[in-house]
Amino acid sequence: MRNKNIKLIALDVDGTIMNKSYRISDRVKKAISHATAKGIYVVIATGRMYSATVPIAVELDLQTPLIVYQGSLIKEFYKSDRTLLHHYLETDLSYDIIRDTREKDVQINVYLDDKLYVEAESLILQEYVTRRNISFYMLDGFENYENFLPTKILAMDPDAQKINLLIDEFKGKYFNRLNITKSTDYFCEFINKKCSKADGIMFLAEKWGIDQSEVMAVGDHDNDREMLDYAAIGVAMGNSHENLKQIADYVTDTVDNDGAALAIEKFAL
After folding, report:
1. Distance from first CA to last CA of the chain, Å, rounded?
2. Element (H, E) at 225
3. In which domain, by residue range, is 102 found?
4. Are 131 and 160 within one domain?
5. Is the same domain home to 31 and 117?
6. How far apart are CA 178 and CA 171, in angstroms?
7. Residue from 58, 3, 60 nearest 28 by CA
8. Residues near 261 by Cβ (< 8 Å), separated by ≥ 6?
9. 1: in domain
10. Residue 129 and residue 135 in contact, taking contact as beta carbons nearer than 8 Å
11. CB 3.0-4.6 Å disulfide test: which of 108, 109, 138, 212 passes with 154?
């Protein structure tokens, strides 16, 4: 593969630039710093909440909008908190999703106005919020929330096979109404049909006058598939599932071995 003139690099967070200890290595930080110094737009594209992503962007000294909630929200953080794009789930559709997921006996997280709301606590919820350093709010029932327009709904369970079965069933039922994706083996995410990380990248690329041939994307899971497909150079991490590696232009090393930094150095620096 010949090197291209890369002007935009989109990076997933968990499993890509951040390891299981929730740390970003010095080599990854340096590669990102060198890319931005070269005039390349480095953009985070993640399923995380905006408030949980800002500290990561600050740590990396980025000055670009954040693509969060799998592309449902694009928001500035460095000079304002201006929202550039926001697609939410309609109320009736959200209630349909919640009613169906309740029957599966999984943890249901609902994200409204960049806050996490739940109806019940669980061990997987406690682990989720502790590792991401975020708070959650209890509701007696999601139906009691006024103006119920979630940015994202997340179903979680420690049984990966249970999540796989849920995704298969729901993709059949909601195929023309939702974007349903898996961000880890244990997370099933529901967002607006119009949204994906790729759509967020396209939005910013058009804003900045960057051609698709000048875009590079790095990710590690199913929710990164669209952006790897879109990018001129789609890079799968060495710790990715095989199905993502198969559609990638290049497979780099694992997150523990600074795979994202190696890819940035190879194709952009």
Report:
1. 15
2. helix 225-230
3. 91-192
4. yes
5. no
6. 8
7. 60
8. 25, 27, 28, 30, 31, 32
9. no
10. yes
11. 109
φ, ψ (nearest 5 deg) of residue 118:
-140, 160
Is 212 within 8 Å of 230 (Cβ atoms)?
A: yes
Structural domains of the chain, count? 2
**117 and 160, same structural domain?**
yes
How far apart are the C-alpha atoms of 228 and 221, rounded to whole Å? 10
- pLDDT recorded at residue 85: 97
Token pair listed for 26: 């010095």
Contacts of 14 (CB under 8 A, 6+ apart): 46, 48, 183, 184, 220
Residue 244: name the closest of 253, 235, 233 by CA: 235
What b/e string do you get for 238-269 counting C-beta neighbours within 10 Å, with b at 16 or more? Answer: ebbeeebbeebbbbbeebeebbbbbbbbbbbe
Residue ending a domain, among 192, 216, 240, is 192
In CATH, what number is assigned to the domain containing residue 145? 3.30.1240.10
Could you give the angle at which helices 91-102 and 160-173 cross, rounded to 10 degrees? 140
Rounded to whole angstroms, how far apart are CA atoms 203 and 180?
A: 20
3 located within any domain = no
Burial grade of 91 (CB within 10 A; 0-12, 13-18, 19 or more): middle
| Residues 244 and 220 occupy one common structural domain | yes
Q: Are 217 and 7 in contact (CB under 8 A)?
A: no
Average pLDDT, 10 consecutive residues per value, the chain (269 residues): 79 96 96 98 97 96 97 94 96 96 96 96 95 93 93 97 96 94 94 96 98 97 96 98 95 98 97
pLDDT at position 2 is: 46
Per the CB < 8 A criterion, the answer to whether 108 and 124 are in contact is: no
